[in-house]
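Hi support team,

I've been running sequence recovery on a batch of backbones for a student project. Most finish fine, but this one hangs at about 90% for roughly twenty minutes before it completes. I'm not sure whether the input is malformed or the queue is just slow. I've pasted the structure tokens below so you can try to reproduce it. Let me know if you need the job ID as well.

Thanks,
M.K.
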């Protein structure tokens, strides 16, 4: 049973930093892409950053230059370093992964971690 477990959310002042972590485990044969989405209250879930199998990561325009995604392929982990945080970054952040299990490729989501940027 595949699980994505996130950590690292919390309350931070504007201009501060947070680092989110996500670990994938359980029945994994391969992982194609890992990334992060956010969902603000009353809004749809949207992409923050995605790291695929090659090339440069993709970022939402709103976070370019402030957030950095990185992967540890050996440990099936993905990280999101968030700097210069703004109140509008406040949301629940979800880890995402496209994972190969015995029955094929599947999309998986973490349970979400709250990030609140406020003074």
């Amino acid at each position: 049973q595949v699980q994505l477990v996130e950590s690292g959310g919390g309350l931070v002042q504007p201009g501060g930093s947070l680092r989110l972590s996500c670990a994938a485990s359980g029945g994994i044969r391969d992982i194609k892409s890992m990334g992060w989405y956010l969902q603000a209250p009353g809004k749809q879930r949207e992409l923050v950053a995605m790291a695929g199998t090659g090339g440069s990561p993709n970022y939402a325009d709103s976070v370019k230059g402030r957030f950095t995604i990185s992967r540890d392929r050996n440990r099936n982990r993905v990280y999101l370093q968030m700097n210069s945080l703004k109140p509008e970054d406040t949301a629940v952040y979800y880890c995402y992964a496209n994972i190969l299990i015995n029955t094929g490729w599947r999309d998986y989501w973490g349970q979400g971690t709250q990030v609140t940027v406020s003074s």
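--
Follow-up from support: It reproduced on our side and the slowdown came from queue contention, not your input. The chain has a mean pLDDT of 96. No action needed from you.
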